[in-house]
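Box 3.1 A note on notation
Throughout this textbook, protein chains are presented in two layers. The first layer is the amino acid sequence; the second is a token string describing backbone geometry. Keep the layers aligned when reading.
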Amino acid sequence: MRSFTYHRAASAAEAAAAVAENPNAKFIGGGTNLLDLMKLGIEQPTHLVDVSRLPLAAIEETADGGLRIGAVVRNSDLAVDMRIRTRYPLLTQALLSGASAQIRNKASTAGNLLQRTRCYFFYDRNMPCNKRSPGSGCAALGGSNRMHAILGASQACIAVHPSDMAVAMTALDAQIETVSASGKTRVIPIGELHRLPGETPNVETSLGLGEMITAVILPPPPPGRQIYRKVRDRASYAFALVSVAVVVDVQQDSISSARVALGGVAPKPWRASGAEQVLDGAKRSDDVLNRAAEAALAGARGAGGNDFKILLARRTLQATLSAATQNV
């Protein structure tokens, strides 16, 4: 690991200003992703701004019945919070399916959102990777790409976003609260936080230089049954091949509202709006659920080794929707 300087911020605005003043500076919270990348020489910050002790570790009620989750709330604390468990069970299921208990005890809410891809070529400095080294190429296109994207990818990058938590938050229409170096705050819909790769896969979010996530705001819990289902190579500890987050409300055998998000299939948490359009207002039937799954994967394209994900995602979504709409 290369040498770096360290600063413990006294406020979120101070932290944002410190990072904005130094393009080679990084925020550090739990450090579960950044430190690994620094050890491998993929991230080489010259200055670390520690935000882990800022007063951003609370989960608070909002006036409209939602929750405001501080940026440094630990994944383990968030998963077991009784308000999350009872009102947003989808989020608890997603959090407990991610990483190990030890990592969840350190990983923060903001850090989870901003964690970088686990593409093996991104981690191998001997291989070309446009995300790590712009213009060098994408080794995954012609290499082993079993874990890679089938939606939203480009010829420059087919890496996927690794977060489980972010997929659940996407289905819940979360909003991201930030502060900039000037002290200005803004709220970003979670669907606009992460960028698709296009020709610049190294630019992963819509955050400005030094802009810091301070909280995630969950709107009041949506009606209906919530389910998060993750398919992975082993049960104990693995990133998703495919994950599905659904919130479906069924009234008198008709689907009054539906929210669907997919993980492990795209460079960002993927909102399946085509599936939602099929489901909204439809009478519950196997045919409707199958058509919704077809719509969710309508634009999917494999790169060879990951072709199986298209069928896997379709069937996982069908099964999850079936479970979410039964006996209600």
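Residues 226-325 form a domain with the Enolase-like; domain 1 fold (CATH 3.30.390.50). The chain has a mean pLDDT of 97.
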